[in-house]
Design a protein that fits this description.
The protein is an all-beta fold and 61 residues long. It has no helices and four strands. The two termini are 17 Å apart.
Length: 61
């Protein structure tokens, strides 16, 4: 199932941007994902893929 990153008129995309092109080691970054229909519930395991990066088995909070 694919979800999208919400974009609000005043705030813009609800995710962080990396100014120098790649994430820095030791830093924490975030992305909010839309969950229309509330199909993904807390405790569900999910796979997140961003470009070539894939992180399977994350537990939704």
């Amino acid at each position: 199932m694919l979800t999208h990153v919400p974009v609000t008129p005043k705030v813009g995309p609800l995710r962080q941007s990396v100014k120098l092109g790649k994430p820095a080691e030791g830093r924490t970054y975030f992305i909010f994902f839309a969950n229309p229909g509330k199909l993904i519930k807390p405790g569900t395991k999910a796979t997140v893929s961003i470009g070539e990066f894939v992180m399977p088995g994350l537990v939704v909070q």
